[in-house]
C-alpha cells in the first residue's frame, strides 16, 4: 500500500494489485484504477509536458475532458496510441504507458527552453514571427516547430486491430449514467420502451461514484446505484453500455457511439474488436451529460498538483487516493468547500480554503472552522511555487477591488473550482441554441432542433436531488413522446450539496498581469494575456480570437477553457459575454480513433473490386493489373524478362501484324428498348440514329447541356426498337443515370426502357489483320466477309457454340471484332479463341497497349483527352454531330458565345523534334520558351507514348487555337530540358483507314 | 444522416440510398434553339441557392431508381416534404415540418 492510497476506500479492488509501466518504471495500482489514479496513488503528479512551452503538467481532471495528462499507451503486439488520456485509460498488466513531449526525460526536458522564450511564443506567434523571410519557413521554422512542439508520436505500423460497427434502433437513448441519466432510463424503461443507456466511464454512476455519503430513498448512494443498475440490467428492453462515448449527435436523432471493448484488458481475445462504432437511431434522446468543472485563471495555475476540486473528490471516493498531504482549496463556488471537508475527513490537511467571494454560506464557513480549516473568504491566489510539483501558493486579501499583501501558504496540492459548465457539446452538434443564464452564470440549452430532452446539470440544475427528479421527468417525457405515458417518480435525497457560485475572469492579482502565466487552455498553452493581446491586435469575433490564440483548439476542444476564454475576451472587448458568444462545438465529443470510424472498410474491403469473367485467366497468365473505376483491368501481360515497355511493344506488334485479344468486358452496356427508343437516342446523343439500319452501328457522342463531352461509345441497332449502347468503363453508371433522368423527368411520354447490361455480357475484342481468319471458323449463322459484314456492323449469331452479339468495330484501326457472350461463357470463349489463336501468333493485350493503339489512330479517351470543358468541335469530332437534328442534349450550347469564340483549346497531335523523347502526360505547352517566368501556358499534353508502329514518340494535346496551328513549332518545358514539338493532326497511323479491311491489305 | 421519404416506395429510408440531383422545377426548354444566349445561360447555370426553403431533386438510386422532388430547409438541412416528379410545388402553408 502506498502513502496516498487509503486502505479499503473507493471502488477499486484493494485485493488485486495490477502492475504496469510508466516511462519504463513499474508502477503498482489496483484493479479498477486509471493510469492517473494509480500514478497519484504513488505520489506521481508529473505526467506530461505541454504543447508549446513544454511546461511540466499533471492531471487536472479525473475524466475525459483531461487536457494535460496525455500519454502514449502500448498494449503489446505492436499496438501503440498517442495522446491517450491517463484519466480514462484503465490499467492492466500488459500496459506500457509513456509520457510525451519530453526529451530526454520527463523531469528534465530540453524543449522547456520554449518556456523561457515565452514572449516570442505569444498569441499569433505563428503569423507574426514566421512571416519573413519566406524561405525560412520550410527550411528553418517549420522543422524546428515540429520537433519542439506537437502532441505525441503517431504509430508507424499498420493498426493490427479489428474495429466493428453496428446499427441500432431504440425508443430512448440516454447519454450519461449519472443520477439524471439513471433516473431517465428507469422512468422510460419501466414503461416498456426500448432504452439504451451509455456512459463513457468504465463504471456507470457518474457523480454518485464520487458522493458515497448520499442517502437516496433510504439507501446509501452506492446501494441505490447497485439496485438501479440491477433493475435496469434485468429488463430485456434495456441495454447498458459503459465505456461507450456518444461522439456525435447527427440529424434526426442519429447518435454515433464509440464503445471501447478491449483497451482495458491485459489479454484480450485475439479475434475481439478493439472498438465498436454504433450508429443509433433513437426515437427520443435524453442528454444527461452533467457539467464540467471550470478551472480558475491565475499565475501558475498549471503546475503539477494543481487540479480541479471535483477531480480530487473523484480520486478520493472512487479510487481511494489522496491527491496530496497538505492541500489548499481556491474557489468561487460552494462545491469546493465540500471537497475540502471530504478530504479533511480522509486525513488530508487542508491548509486553507481561499474563496474570492466575500460572503459565503455561513454553514460552510462554520463547518470549516469546526474542522480547524482556515476559511479565507474575500481572498485571491496570485502565484504558485514549485517546479515539478506545486509547493506553495501565494494568497492575498481582496477588498473593494484592491488586492492586499500576499503570503505564501505551503501545500503539495492546490484544488481549484471556478464553478461548473453544463456539458452541451452533443446538444450543440444538433445546432440547438444556447442562452446565457445570468443566475447560474452559464449557457443553458435554449431552442431544440431534435427530439431530445436535456436533464440535470446539463441544464443548470445543481445537486443530486434535482438531477434525479429532472432525469425522471425527462425519461417520462421521452416515453410519453413515443406513446408510453407514465408519471415520473420522486426521490428522497439526504446529504445533497447543491450550492452556488460566482463567475469570474482572471483572479485579481497584485502582480503585473502582463507577466503572468495564467493558463486558460492548458493543452495549447494559451494564457489570459494571449487572449487580451489578440483583442488588442484587432480580433473582434470569438472565432477569430480562437484561431489567433488557438484557445479551445486542443484535443479537449475547449471543454475546460471555453467559458474562461469567453469571459476574458468579453471583458477585453468590453461587451457582455452572451453577445460575444461561444465557438461552435463539433463532433467528435472526444478524440476518436480512425480505426473506429473506418470499421470494416479497410484493405480489400475499402471499396469493391470488380472483376471480369476473364480476370482469373489474366491473373494466371501473370498479368499486371490497374484499377479503372472500380474494375481491375489487365494492363499488360509480361513474358519472363519483359518490362512494361517491352510487353506493350510486343502486344501492339501482334495486333498490327497478326491478331490480338483484349478483354473489353468492363465497357458499360445499356440496352435501350421500346417504340420510342430511336427518338430517345436522337435526343440524347449528338449523332443521327433514325436512319441507322438494323444490323449497323455508329460511334455515339454524349454531351452535357453545357455542350461539353461527357461520354462516348459504339451503339448498335439490333432491331427497330432495340439498341445496344456502350459507354466508357468509368461512365456506365453515370450515363444510365443521365438517361434515366431525361426519360423520367423531361420526356416521360417516351415509351422506352433502359437496362444496365454491363455485367451480363463478357466482351472479347479480336483485333488485327488476322482477326477474321481466327474468328470465322467459330461463327455460325453469319457471313463474316467484308461484303456481308462490313465495318460498323452488328449481328446476333453463335460463336464457339455460345449465343453472341458480334460487333465489327475497331478501337485499334485494324480489322476488328468484339464478341459479346453471356458473362458465364466469357472465360470459355476466351480460352477457345486463345487456343485457336496460337496458330496465328496471337497475343493477349492489356489496357496499356489498347491506349497506345488508339492514340496512334487519334481516337480520344473521354476523361484523358477531354476534361469536362471540351466540346465536339474542340476534339475534332464535329463530324459526329447530326447537324440536321432540331435538338439534342447540349446542342444549344454549341453556339454559345464562349464556345464559338476563337482561342479555345483544341485537340491536336504533337511530334517531338527528337523522336526518342516521350513527353510527360500533363506537361504544359508554351509558344516561346525564351519568355520570362512565369510563362504563358497555352495547353497541355493529354496522351503520350512511344509508338512501335511509327518508330517514334507521339502525343495528343489540348492547345489554344490548336486546329489553326498545324505545322507550328511549340515547346514543352520538362524537368531538365525544354522540348520542341511540331503540331500535327491527331491521326498518326493509317490516316486513310485502309487497314480496317484486314488481311487484304499487306501488313 | 438524414432520413428521406421516397414518394414512390412510400418509405422513409436513410440518406445513403439516395442521390442529390440539383434544383427542382427547372424544366428543359421545349425548343432550346429558340432561346437567347442569356435565357440559355440562365437555364444552364443560374440557380436560386436560397437560405431556407429549397425545392430540389433527389433520386432513390439504391431503391426504386426514381427521381422525385423534395422541399428542404437549407439552414436546418431538414426535409419538409417530398413529392413525385411532375407534381406542382406543394402548398407549404399547412406544413408543420418546416424548420426555421
Ligand atoms: Zn423509392
UniProtKB/TrEMBL annotation, chain A:
<dbReference type="InterPro" id="IPR041854">
    <property type="entry name" value="BFD-like_2Fe2S-bd_dom_sf"/>
</dbReference>
<dbReference type="Pfam" id="PF12831">
    <property type="entry name" value="FAD_oxidored"/>
</dbReference>
<dbReference type="InterPro" id="IPR027266">
    <property type="entry name" value="TrmE/GcvT-like"/>
</dbReference>
<dbReference type="GO" id="GO:0046653">
    <property type="term" value="P:tetrahydrofolate metabolic process"/>
</dbReference>
<protein>
    <submittedName>
        <fullName>Sarcosine oxidase subunit alpha</fullName>
    </submittedName>
</protein>
<dbReference type="InterPro" id="IPR029043">
    <property type="entry name" value="GcvT/YgfZ_C"/>
</dbReference>
<dbReference type="InterPro" id="IPR013977">
    <property type="entry name" value="GcvT_C"/>
</dbReference>
<dbReference type="Pfam" id="PF13510">
    <property type="entry name" value="Fer2_4"/>
</dbReference>
<feature type="domain" description="Aminomethyltransferase C-terminal">
    <location>
        <begin position="905"/>
        <end position="990"/>
    </location>
</feature>
<feature type="domain" description="GCVT N-terminal">
    <location>
        <begin position="616"/>
        <end position="885"/>
    </location>
</feature>
<dbReference type="InterPro" id="IPR042204">
    <property type="entry name" value="2Fe-2S-bd_N"/>
</dbReference>
<dbReference type="Pfam" id="PF01571">
    <property type="entry name" value="GCV_T"/>
</dbReference>
<dbReference type="InterPro" id="IPR028896">
    <property type="entry name" value="GcvT/YgfZ/DmdA"/>
</dbReference>
<dbReference type="InterPro" id="IPR006222">
    <property type="entry name" value="GCVT_N"/>
</dbReference>
<feature type="domain" description="SoxA A3">
    <location>
        <begin position="517"/>
        <end position="599"/>
    </location>
</feature>
<comment type="similarity">
    <text>Belongs to the GcvT family.</text>
</comment>
<dbReference type="Pfam" id="PF17806">
    <property type="entry name" value="SO_alpha_A3"/>
</dbReference>
<keyword id="KW-0560">Oxidoreductase</keyword>
<dbReference type="InterPro" id="IPR036188">
    <property type="entry name" value="FAD/NAD-bd_sf"/>
</dbReference>
<dbReference type="InterPro" id="IPR041117">
    <property type="entry name" value="SoxA_A3"/>
</dbReference>
<dbReference type="GO" id="GO:0008115">
    <property type="term" value="F:sarcosine oxidase activity"/>
</dbReference>
<dbReference type="Pfam" id="PF08669">
    <property type="entry name" value="GCV_T_C"/>
</dbReference>
Automatic annotation (TrEMBL), chain B:
<dbReference type="InterPro" id="IPR006279">
    <property type="entry name" value="SoxD"/>
</dbReference>
<dbReference type="GO" id="GO:0008115">
    <property type="term" value="F:sarcosine oxidase activity"/>
</dbReference>
<dbReference type="Pfam" id="PF04267">
    <property type="entry name" value="SoxD"/>
</dbReference>
<dbReference type="InterPro" id="IPR038561">
    <property type="entry name" value="SoxD_sf"/>
</dbReference>
<protein>
    <submittedName>
        <fullName>Sarcosine oxidase subunit delta</fullName>
    </submittedName>
</protein>
<dbReference type="GO" id="GO:0046653">
    <property type="term" value="P:tetrahydrofolate metabolic process"/>
</dbReference>
Amino acid at each position: 500500500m502506498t502513502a496516498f492510497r487509503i486502505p479499503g476506500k473507493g471502488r477499486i479492488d484493494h485485493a488485486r494489485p495490477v502492475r504496469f509501466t510508466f516511462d519504463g518504471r513499474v508502477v503498482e495500482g489496483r484493479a479498477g484504477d486509471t493510469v492517473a489514479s494509480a500514478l497519484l496513488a504513488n505520489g506521481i503528479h508529473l505526467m506530461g509536458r505541454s504543447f508549446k512551452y513544454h511546461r511540466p503538467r499533471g492531471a487536472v481532471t479525473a475524466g475525459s475532458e483531461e487536457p494535460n495528462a496525455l500519454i502514449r499507451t502500448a498494449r503489446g503486439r505492436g499496438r501503440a496510441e498517442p495522446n491517450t488520456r491517463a484519466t480514462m485509460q484503465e490499467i492492466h498488466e500488459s500496459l506500457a504507458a509513456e509520457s510525451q513531449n519530453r526529451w530526454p526525460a520527463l523531469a528534465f526536458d530540453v524543449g522547456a527552453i520554449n518556456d523561457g522564450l515565452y514572449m516570442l511564443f505569444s498569441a499569433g506567434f505563428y503569423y507574426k514571427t514566421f512571416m519573413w523571410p519566406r524561405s525560412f519557413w520550410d527550411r528553418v521554422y517549420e522543422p524546428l516547430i515540429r520537433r519542439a512542439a506537437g502532441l505525441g508520436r503517431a504509430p508507424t505500423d499498420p493498426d493490427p486491430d479489428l474495429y466493428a460497427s453496428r446499427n441500432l434502433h431504440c425508443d430512448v437513448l440516454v447519454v450519461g449514467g449519472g443520477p439524471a441519466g439513471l433516473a431517465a432510463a428507469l422512468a422510460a424503461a419501466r414503461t416498456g420502451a426500448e432504452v439504451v443507456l451509455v456512459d463513457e466511464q468504465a463504471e456507470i454512476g457518474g457523480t454518485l461514484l464520487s458522493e458515497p455519503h448520499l442517502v437516496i430513498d433510504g439507501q446509501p448512494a452506492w446501494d441505490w446505484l447497485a439496485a438501479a443498475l440491477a433493475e435496469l440490467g434485468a429488463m430485456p428492453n434495456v441495454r447498458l453500455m459503459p465505456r461507450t462515448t456518444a461522439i456525435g449527435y447527427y440529424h434526426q436523432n442519429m447518435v454515433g457511439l464509440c464503445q471501447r471493448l478491449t483497451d482495458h484488458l491485459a489479454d484480450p481475445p485475439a479475434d475481439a474488436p478493439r472498438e465498436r462504432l454504433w450508429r443509433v437511431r433513437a426515437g427520443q434522446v435524453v442528454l444527461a451529460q452533467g457539467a464540467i468543472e471550470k478551472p480558475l485563471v491565475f499565475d501558475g495555475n498549471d503546475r503539477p498538483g494543481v487540479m480541479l476540486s471535483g477531480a480530487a473528490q473523484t480520486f478520493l471516493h472512487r479510487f481511494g487516493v489522496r491527491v496530496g498531504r497538505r492541500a489548499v482549496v481556491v474557489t468561487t463556488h460552494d462545491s469546493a468547500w465540500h471537497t475540502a471537508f471530504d478530504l479533511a475527513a480522509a486525513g488530508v490537511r487542508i491548509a486553507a480554503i481561499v474563496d474570492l467571494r466575500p460572503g459565503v454560506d455561513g454553514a460552510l464557513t462554520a463547518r470549516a472552522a469546526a474542522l480547524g480549516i482556515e476559511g479565507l473568504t474575500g481572498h485571491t491566489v496570485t502565484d504558485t511555487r514549485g517546479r515539478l510539483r506545486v509547493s506553495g501558493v501565494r494568497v492575498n486579501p481582496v477588498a473593494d477591488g484592491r488586492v492586499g499583501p500576499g503570503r505564501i501558504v505551503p501545500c503539495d496540492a492546490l484544488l481549484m473550482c471556478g464553478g461548473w459548465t453544463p456539458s452541451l457539446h452533443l446538444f450543440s452538434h444538433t445546432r440547438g441554441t444556447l442562452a446565457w443564464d445570468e443566475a447560474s452564470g452559464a449557457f443553458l440549452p435554449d431552442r431544440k432542433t431534435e427530439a431530445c430532452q436535456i436533464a440535470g446539470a446539463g441544464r443548470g440544475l445543481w445537486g443530486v436531488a434535482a438531477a434525479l427528479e429532472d432525469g425522471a421527468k425527462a425519461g417520462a417525457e421521452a416515453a410519453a413522446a413515443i406513446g408510453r405515458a407514465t408519471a415520473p417518480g420522486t426521490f428522497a435525497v439526504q446529504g445533497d450539496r447543491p450550492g452556488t457560485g460566482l463567475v469570474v475572469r482572471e483572479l485579481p492579482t497584485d502582480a503585473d498581469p502582463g507577466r503572468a502565466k495564467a493558463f486558460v487552455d492548458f493543452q495549447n498553452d494559451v494564457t489570459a494575456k494571449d487572449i487580451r493581446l489578440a483583442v488588442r491586435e484587432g480580433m473582434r469575433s470569438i472565432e477569430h480570437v480562437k484561431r489567433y490564440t488557438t484557445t479551445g483548439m486542443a484535443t479537449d476542444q475547449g471543454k475546460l477553457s471555453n467559458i474562461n476564454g469567453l469571459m476574458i475576451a468579453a471583458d477585453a472587448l468590453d461587451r457582455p459575454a452572451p453577445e460575444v458568444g461561444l465557438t461552435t462545438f463539433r463532433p467528435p465529443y472526444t478524440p476518436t480513433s480512425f480505426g473506429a470510424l473506418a470499421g470494416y472498410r479497410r484493405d480489400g474491403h475499402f471499396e469493391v473490386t470488380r472483376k471480369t469473367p476473364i480476370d482469373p485467366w489474366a491473373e494466371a497468365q501473370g498479368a499486371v493489373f490497374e484499377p479503372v473505376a472500380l474494375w481491375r483491368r489487365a494492363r499488360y501481360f509480361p513474358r519472363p524478362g519483359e518490362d512494361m515497355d517491352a510487353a506493350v511493344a510486343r502486344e501492339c506488334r501482334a495486333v498490327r501484324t497478326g491478331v490480338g485479344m483484349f478483354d473489353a468486358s468492363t465497357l458499360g452496356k445499356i440496352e435501350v428498348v421500346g417504340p420510342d427508343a430511336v427518338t430517345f437516342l436522337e435526343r440524347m446523343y449528338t449523332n443521327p440514329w433514325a436512319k441507322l439500319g438494323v444490323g449497323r452501328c455508329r460511334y455515339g457522342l454524349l454531351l452535357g447541356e453545357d455542350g461539353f463531352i461527357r461520354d462516348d461509345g459504339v451503339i448498335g441497332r439490333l432491331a427497330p426498337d432495340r439498341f445496344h449502347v456502350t459507354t466508357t468503363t468509368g461512365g456506365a453508371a453515370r450515363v444510365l443515370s443521365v438517361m434515366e433522368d431525361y426519360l423520367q423527368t423531361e420526356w416521360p411520354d417516351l415509351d422506352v426502357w433502359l437496362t444496365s447490361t454491363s455485367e451480363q455480357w463478357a466482351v472479347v475484342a479480336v483485333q488485327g489483320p488476322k482477326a477474321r481468319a481466327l474468328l470465322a471458323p467459330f461463327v455460325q449463322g453469319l457471313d463474316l466477309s467484308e461484303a456481308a459484314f462490313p465495318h460498323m456492323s452488328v449481328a446476333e449469331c453463335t460463336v464457339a457454340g455460345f449465343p453472341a452479339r458480334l460487333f465489327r468495330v475497331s478501337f485499334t484501326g485494324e480489322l476488328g471484332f468484339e464478341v459479346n457472350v453471356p458473362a458465364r461463357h466469357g472465360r470459355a470463349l476466351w480460352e477457345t479463341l486463345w487456343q485457336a489463336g496460337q496458330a496465328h501468333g496471337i497475343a493477349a493485350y492489356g489496357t496499356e497497349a489498347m491506349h497506345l493503339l488508339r492514340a496512334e489512330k487519334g481516337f480520344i479517351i473521354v476523361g484523358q483527352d477531354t476534361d469536362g470543358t471540351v466540346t465536339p468541335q474542340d476534339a475534332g469530332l464535329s463530324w459526329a454531330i447530326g447537324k440536321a437534328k432540331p435538338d439534342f442534349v447540349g446542342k444549344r450550347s454549341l453556339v454559345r458565345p464562349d464556345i464559338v469564340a476563337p482561342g479555345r483549346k483544341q485537340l491536336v497531335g504533337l511530334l517531338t523534334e527528337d523522336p526518342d523523347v516521350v513527353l510527360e502526360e500533363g506537361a504544359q505547352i508554351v509558344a516561346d520558351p525564351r519568355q520570362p517566368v512565369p510563362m504563358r501556358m497555352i495547353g497541355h499534353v493529354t496522351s503520350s507514348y512511344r509508338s512501335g508502329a511509327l518508330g517514334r514518340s507521339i502525343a495528343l494535346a489540348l492547345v489554344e487555337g490548336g486546329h489553326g496551328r498545324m505545322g507550328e513549332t511549340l515547346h514543352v518545358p520538362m524537368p531538365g530540358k525544354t522540348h520542341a514539338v511540331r503540331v500535327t493532326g491527331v491521326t498518326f497511323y493509317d490516316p486513310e483507314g485502309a487497314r480496317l479491311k484486314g488481311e487484304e491489305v499487306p501488313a | 444522416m438524414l432520413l428521406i421519404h421516397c414518394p414512390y416506395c412510400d418509405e422513409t429510408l436513410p440518406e445513403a440510398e439516395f442521390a442529390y440531383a440539383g434544383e427542382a422545377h427547372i424544366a428543359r426548354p421545349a425548343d432550346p434553339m429558340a432561346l437567347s444566349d442569356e435565357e440559355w445561360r440562365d437555364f444552364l447555370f443560374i440557380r436560386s441557392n436560397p437560405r431556407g426553403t429549397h425545392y430540389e431533386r433527389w433520386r432513390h438510386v439504391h431503391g426504386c431508381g426514381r427521381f422525385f422532388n423534395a422541399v428542404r430547409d437549407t439552414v436546418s438541412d431538414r426535409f419538409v416534404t417530398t413529392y413525385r416528379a411532375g407534381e406542382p410545388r406543394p402548398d407549404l402553408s399547412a406544413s408543420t415540418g418546416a424548420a426555421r
